[in-house]
């Protein structure tokens, strides 16, 4: 299982909040996703590809952090997949770190459904982007994330998995995406980060502070 993560300070650049809030939200989304992936019995090895210096992973015995030599999402995934091919050949999946509404049962149902296909991908909520990407053989994994990636993956022969739970499709690029994720329910780290952002907006402060209690 490959989870590519941008450094927190450059992630979620389209999210219309201040930079400090974007950093906090990006980290929170990733922590929720990593905890779910690490808990899954379908995942033998969790490979996190990231240049974020503060990154830690849950269940360290099951996870490894790889520092990519180059920038770019597809390059990071390819770097991770080469490590997988050398060390743990077998089915592989890519999960983005911005699926805060993902739950363990939903995640495992999607992985189980993907085993019916040599290659498969889950389109995002608007059907244009891609969230989860899978391949029965890591040599066949061909990441093509970016604008219109769902179409490009399909043209390359990947099966489009539209029947999976919407929580696998709700990645976060905009405030509207975040609002929709909240209606589905988000993980504990994401929920706390969202509460802090909302509190800062209410009080006009950049740092989350709570009213004094008597």
Summarize the structure.
This protein is α/β, with parallel strands linked by helices and 214 residues long. The protein has helices at residues 19-39, 73-87, 104-114, 149-155, 175-184, 188-203; strands at 2-5, 46-50, 63-66, 92-94, 119-123, 130-135, 159-160. It is 37% helix and 14% strand.
Question: In this structure, how is the largest beta sheet organized?
Answer: 4 strands, mixed
Oligomer designation: single chain
Low-confidence stretches: 203-214
Radius of gyration: 17 Å
Overall SS class? alpha/beta
Terminal residue distance: 49 Å
- With helices defined by DSSP (H or I, 4 residues minimum), what is the helix count? 6
**Judging from the principal axes of the Cα atoms, what is the shape?**
globular
Order of helices and strands: EHEEHEHEEHEHH
Q: What's the β-strand tally?
A: 7
State mean pLDDT (0 to 100 scale): 91
How much of the residues is beta strand, in percent? 5-15%
Order of strands in the sheet with most strands: 4-6-5-7
User: How helical, in percent, are the residues?
Assistant: 25-40%
Description:
- The protein is an alpha/beta fold.
- 37% of the residues lie in helices and 14% in strands.
- The chain has 6 helices and 7 strands, in the order E-H-E-E-H-E-H-E-E-H-E-H-H.
- It has helices at 19-39, 73-87, 104-114, 149-155, 175-184, 188-203, and strands spanning 2-5, 46-50, 63-66, 92-94, 119-123, 130-135, 159-160.
- The strands form 2 sheets. A 4-stranded mixed beta sheet has the order 4-6-5-7.
- Helix 1 links the parallel strand 1 and strand 2 (46-50).
- Helix 1 runs antiparallel to helix 6 (188-203).
- The longest helix has 21 residues, at 19-39.
- The termini are far apart.
């Amino acid at each position: 299982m490959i989870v590519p993560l941008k450094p927190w300070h450059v992630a979620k650049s389209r999210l219309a909040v201040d930079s400090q809030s974007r950093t906090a939200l990006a980290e929170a989304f990733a922590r929720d996703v990593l905890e779910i992936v690490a808990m899954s019995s379908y995942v033998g090895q969790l490979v996190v590809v990231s240049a974020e210096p503060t990154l830690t992973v849950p269940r360290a015995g099951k996870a490894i952090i790889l520092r990519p030599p180059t920038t770019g999402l597809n390059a990071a995934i390819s770097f991770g997949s080469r490590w997988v091919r050398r060390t743990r050949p077998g089915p592989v999946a890519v999960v983005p770190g911005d699926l805060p509404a993902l739950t363990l049962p939903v995640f495992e149902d999607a992985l189980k459904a993907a085993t019916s296909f040599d290659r498969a991908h889950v389109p995002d909520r608007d059907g244009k982007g891609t969230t989860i990407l899978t391949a029965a053989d890591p040599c066949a994994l061909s990441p093509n994330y970016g604008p219109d990636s769902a179409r490009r993956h399909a043209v390359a022969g990947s099966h489009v998995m539209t029947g999976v739970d919407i929580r696998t499709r709700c990645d976060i690029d905009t405030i509207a995406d975040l609002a929709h994720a909240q209606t589905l329910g988000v993980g504990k780290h994401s929920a706390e980060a969202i509460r802090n952002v909302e509190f800062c907006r209410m009080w006009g402060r950049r740092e989350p502070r709570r009213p004094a209690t008597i």
